[in-house]
Design brief:
Blueprint (H helix, E strand, L loop, with lengths): L1 H26 L52 H9 L1
Length: 89
């Protein structure tokens, strides 16, 4: 009896997604094939000149920033740590 329940559960796990996929496929519209024009006309005029624009001003993201000076200690190191220990102890 337990074997038939397993077979039924396996069939449901397989059949339900397949049924959903088949229904979705059946209900979708078929895309139309693209229509190609019978005649293509090209513009025979000369190209219009593009308007000249002034040079863009640099935005803040374009600005160059100098690097911070290199030190031997890490950035999170406090200089006051040693002096605090001396005063407390």
């Amino acid at each position: 009896m337990a074997f038939s329940h397993r077979i039924a559960a396996l069939a449901a796990v397989v059949a339900i997604p397949l049924g959903i996929a088949a229904t979705s496929f059946a209900l979708t519209d078929q895309p139309k094939s693209p229509e190609v024009p019978s005649r293509v006309e090209l513009d025979s005029g000369s190209p219009t000149p593009t308007p000249t624009r002034p040079a863009p001003t640099p935005t803040p993201s374009d600005e160059v920033v100098s690097r911070p000076p290199v030190t031997d200690s890490s950035a999170s190191d406090d200089d006051d740590d040693e002096s605090d220990r001396d005063e407390d102890g």
